[in-house]
Every structure is written in structure tokens, then in C-alpha cells.
Amino acid sequence: MGESFQYVDIILFAMIAAFLVLRLRSVLGRHKDDGRPPPRPEADPLAQPTNMGDDTVIPLPERMRRPRPENPFDDQPLAEPAGPLEAGVAAMRAHDPRFDLKEFIGGARAAFEMIVQGFAEGDRKTLKELLSTEVYDNFDGAMRDRESRNEILENTLIRIVSVDPTEAEVEHGIASITVKIVSEQVNVTKNAAGETVSGNANHIAEVSDIWTFSRDLRSRDPNWKLVATRSE
């Protein structure tokens, strides 16, 4: 009886072992048995393609293959947009290639000194050469009014702080440039007895003027004339 039980145990263990071997082969070795490869994982749509030789294993999605729209400014240096002043200066150079803005500013400084001094001294000859007819009439009216009261304007131009062009344009062949002129002056008005009517001889005032100069580009006359004035 004891030996028969031992034979039964051996047979039972052998059957269990055979069952386990067959089970493991069915799970681990199925692709070798039926010839089918393991399923291919899905590609990440944002992943870069991996090249194996000449083949692309992971293709890019359709939305990733669309060409990037061309930007016409990619290969061009960034430029500052042209403003009214630059556009006006360019138009003047188109009519007169010799026009130079720096030279004009230097001339405007000189004209400012002559006009301020000419107005204080009543120098009508100088003013007629530098002012338009309309502006000259306004200056002449102010000088006549001052003279009728026997008053004298004493003007001392200490210095010109800055001359900055603000606008430029060309219309029907007429060029116009507006400049802001900041200066330091001492202005004193005295009556016939020498008494101070207005102003202070000991006070230096900072004066801001907006002047517009104009010139006919079709004319051979290179001189500019003051056509408008206002105070800031």
C-alpha cells in the first residue's frame, strides 16, 4: 500500500509539472510559434521621427508636416518706420539732392539770432530779407506800436539751448520745416525816460518758440524765410 501511494504521488507531480511547462510556453513563446510580432506601440504625435537607416520609423502627423508660412521679413533687418519729419526730408531731397538737414538747422540758428536782434533794434531791412510778407507785417506792426509809445526793447540773447526740427513737408513744390527753438534771453522794455516798463534785467528767461521756415524748391533762390511763429 505504501509503495502504491508513492507511485501515485510521483505521477501526480509529473502531471502538474507538464501542465506548468505548457502554460509558460503558451504565454512567453507565442510569437515564435505563430510568427506574429508583438503589437507596435502608437507613435507620440509630438515626438521627433527616429531614423533607422533610410526608413522613418515614427512618421510625423499631417499637422506637423505642414510648411511654415514664409515671412518676407525673416531675412531683412528691422528698420525704424519713417515718420512725417523723415518723409518730408526725403521729399525735399527728391527735389533738391543737395539739401542737408544739419546745414538747415545751422542756418535756422543764425536766422533766429538775426531776427530777434533785428526786431529789438527795429532793423526792418534785415527783417524783410528773412521774413515772409505776412510775418513781416506782424513784426512791423509790433515795432510801430512800440515806437508810438517811445519805448525801447533791450534784448540780450544769452544762448540758444536747442534747435529741433519737428515737422517737414513738401506741397506743390513749396518746402516747409518747423523747428522748436529753446533759448535763454533777457528782455527789458524801457520808456523814453529810461525807466523799466516790463521785464527784469536780472532775470534770464527760458523762451520756447515754434518757427516754420519755407522755401520754393523750384526757385534758384536757396534762402529760407520765416513764414509762421508761435510760442509754446
Layout of SSEs?
Layout: H1 2-28, H2 30-34, E1 51-52, E2 55-56, H3 62-65, H4 84-95, H5 101-121, H6 124-130, H7 133-148, E3 152-171, E4 174-190, E5 196-199, E6 205-216, E7 225-231
Helix pairs in contact: 5-6
What does it look like?
This protein is an alpha+beta fold. It has helices spanning 2-28, 30-34, 62-65, 84-95, 101-121, 124-130, 133-148; strands at residues 51-52, 55-56, 152-171, 174-190, 196-199, 205-216, 225-231. It has a domain at 84-231: Roll (Nuclear Transport Factor 2, Chain: A), CATH 3.10.450. Helix content is 40%, strand content 28%. The radius of gyration is 47 Å and the shape is elongated. It starts with a helix and ends with a strand. Residues 43-66 and 71-81 have low confidence and may be disordered.
Structural key phrases:
232 residues, 7 helices, alpha+beta, Nuclear Transport Factor 2, Chain: A, two-stranded antiparallel sheet, elongated, five-stranded antiparallel beta sheet
What's the N-to-C terminus distance? Answer: 130 Å
**Helix proportion:** 25-40%
Number of helices: 7
Q: Strand content of the residues, in percent?
A: 25-35%
Task: Report a brief summary of the structure.
This protein is an alpha+beta fold. The protein has helices at residues 2-28, 30-34, 62-65, 84-95, 101-121, 124-130, 133-148; strands spanning 51-52, 55-56, 152-171, 174-190, 196-199, 205-216, 225-231. It has a domain at 84-231: Roll (Nuclear Transport Factor 2, Chain: A), CATH 3.10.450.
